Amino acid sequence: MAKAKRRRVRDTWKEKSWFTIKTPVAFQDKEIGETPAKEAEYVIGRTVEVTMRELTGDFSKQYIKLQFEVDNIAGNIANTKFTGHKTTTDYVRSMIRRGTSRIDAPVYVTTKDERKIKLHVLAVTTRRAKSSQQKFMRETIQDLVTNVASEKTFDELVEISVNGRLASEIYHKAKKIYPLKRVEIIKSKVLE
């Protein structure tokens, strides 16, 4: 009698369908994973983190993590938008040595197509810099990034921020102020 009353457990996994997650067109529309969901609208808003190496195959870019958020569904394809990137903490730590100065320059910029993005630039000097030199370096970096961003579209800015071209440009302009060891854009965040 007790056995007959026992209910059958429903297997909810069988009710779910799988959605293929793809990067935005700016990142070559690549497949970056799959996710299960009962309804398509449950997939919207999910975030995916993928390393630059997984996208490009370039092992030297292993330390860059890109973040994407699903913003629309087409059939069983989940399309994403870029929401930001960051570099791993161990990579940042490896750049900073005793006797050097770490100059952090967070910059809020607006692109040519009116999109807002926060870029966090890290400059590491070859030897310790005075606080006045650090302040001047920070202001120079912020001005330079603001000017570059205002001339670029959102996709162009994201591309040069992530692949290191913007950091290289900052390095070549800012090293005239004080000798630099390295410049890196360690974080970016798209502001809605």
Brief description of this entry?
The protein is α+β, with helices and mostly antiparallel strands and 192 residues long.
Could you explain the architecture of this structure?
- Strands 1, 2, 3, 4, 5, 6, 7 and 8 form an eight-stranded mixed β-sheet that branches.
- A hairpin with a 5-residue loop joins strand 6 and strand 7 (116-125).
- The longest helix is centred in the C-terminal third of the chain and has 21 residues, at 131-151.
- This protein has helices at 2-5, 52-56, 89-95, 131-151, 154-162, 165-174, and strands at residues 17-22, 31-37, 47-51, 64-74, 77-87, 102-110, 116-125, 180-191.
- The protein has six helices and eight strands; from the N terminus they run H-E-E-E-H-E-E-H-E-E-H-H-H-E.
- By secondary structure, the protein is an alpha+beta fold.
Number of helices: 6
Describe the sheet with the most strands.
8 strands, mixed
Secondary-structure-based class equals alpha+beta
List segments where confidence is low: pLDDT < 50 over at least 5 consecutive residues.
none
Distance, first to last CA:
60 Å
Shape verdict: elongated
**What is the number of E strands?**
8
User: Into which percentage range does the β-strand content fall?
Assistant: 35-45%
Helicity level = 25-40%
Radius of gyration: 22 Å
* Average of the residue pLDDT scores: 90
Sequence of secondary-structure elements: HEEEHEEHEEHHHE
